[in-house]
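We include the entry.

. . .
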Amino acid sequence: MSTNYILIDFENVQPKELSDLNAEHFRIIVFAGASQKKVPIALANALQPMGSRAEYIQITGNGPNALDFHIAFYIGWFAKQDKTAHFYIISKDQGFDPLIKHLKAKGIPVKRLPNVSSHPLIVSSNKVKPATKPSDANNISLIKSTNKKSTSEKIKTIIENLEQRGAKKPRTIKTLSNTINSLFPNKLSDKELTALIGALQNKKFITVSDLKKVLYPINK
């Protein structure tokens, strides 16, 4: 699974619970302002078990966008080192959005979230199962989840991940299946994968050519 870089704007958002991020595919960087000299004990205790996968970066200077520039720099730094990385900026600051749009256009998957719990992998692991949309019934009725997640949540997670890939979306059924499998803790059966791909087609998110090539609408 690709490494998910969680870049926390600690001036804007102070998460109290990070235990859901204690997994090998997450790396957490907390960006603190120059005047933020302390962090809550609960946050420190949550990050400590993560070892080298978690770190603090205290910015220098007190300019109005100083922290934003630090986050932008480190996204570029990590993206150069890890070509498969996904980036999530945890902040309510909409000033990041033009940067995110530009990075996506360059093929770097970046998304801003208002809190850690909004991360798609965390949302997809939620055991609350929302109602299934009737339009997907023919495909998702084939799926018996081994991950204790509803099919509609799986589809949502898959679409969000693919949208973040920009121009680097999988272009064959095989690579799409591998990408979908990488998003969930337990390997999906061939029947589940076929049903999920069928649901993506029903939603007009993808089309599949006679040569098993995966195509995406222009606006995706």
In short: The longest strand covers residues 26-32.
